Amino acid sequence: MLTIDANSPPPPPRKPRFYEVLYVQVIFAIIVGILLGHFFPEFGESLKPLGDAFIKLVKMIIAPVIFLTVVTGIAGMNDMKSVGRVAGKAMLYFLTFSTLALVVGMIIANIIQPGAGLNIDPSTLQSAKVSEYVSKAQESSMIAFFMNIIPTTVLSPLTEGNILQVLFVSVLFGISLASVGERGKPITDLLQVAAAPMFKLVSIVMKVAPIGALGAMAFTIGKYGLHSISHLMLLIVTFYITSILFVLLILGAVARYNGFSIVGLIRYIKDELWLVLGTSSSEAALPNLMQKMEAAGCKKSVVGLVVPTGYSFNLDGTNIYMTMAALFIAQATNTDLTIGQQITLLLVAMLSSKGAAGVTGAGFITLAATLSVVPGLPVEGMALILGIDRFMSECRALTNFIGNACATIVVARWENALDKEQLGKAMRGELVVKTEMH
To answer: Where are the alpha helices (DSSP H) in 125-184?
Structure first.
């Protein structure tokens, strides 16, 4: 007869088999999606609602996750000046590396010249879809952008899902809660308790991540086909290599200077990167990124401020894409740009990339805004890259995602809000984080 000692420790949890791990399922789904889209294009294209539905599910929970994280983080801060200090340091980081990404894209495009030799007549490039992006770009001004940060009501950001509006209300409410001292403690405690079921909801939503990844990938390959990228392969390869070098060399140097490894960071967030790759959306992994950055030793208040803000202002991949795509169009249409015009292009891109932040399809909208301002650059040239934009969006999203993870650790270190021992464990792969991807 088997007897069990009541005082003996419980047995360790069973290690999940490899096919039970969610990110492995996502990888498998991506492969199946590519095969379905390639061999059964019509069926693959019909699976688009699966990907769209998953993204909608994730967006449904992003607003309350940000609200709970930011409010409880700020309410727990003793010094309210540190809120402004964190925000200021984050914006300084974002401005520096976003501009650097624009410069890198411009330099590489001038060296490789991926559009040279195509000899395309701009007058033959008419596209209703391009006109749609141009009209959206014209609506996106800096003043309109800043006015849009202010929501209609205190509760409307939670229903509309505008990340910057959610962040705006969360910061104000967190400061207000901290300002009333002990009287606000019951509300702070309530919100901290509410965070547990909210992240459990994230866990439930993430169970269907493989289905979303399969649908998104099958649609992309089914609609555009692998053959559609062949004649523009040089631009795609150049963009991917440039983004990889930006991450490994530039962000790698920043990481090394701040005491961690960019390769270790990529390994730490690899699960989320697979999800971003499968869905072409960095938003799909935003809740998990916030959890992982906090687990890696970044203070909750820093994570709550830096990650959501970075999703609108720290778009390294999008910025590399912008200057590279603009110069590709100029080269393909034999439009000669002087050094002065290229500097103008860079300055306009710096502004337009902030003006369209948080807007759906921001990469293409900011490109339209930039082309329409620089004299001589044919906006119609956007039709050249419209078909391959979807293939480049994965790289944009991955680069943006890694850039925001790096920024969070750097700002936390600047603010002395980083547990270096915990970060070291994360970078060495010793930290087991129970997130929704496991």
So the answer is: 128-139, 142-149, 156-160, 163-179
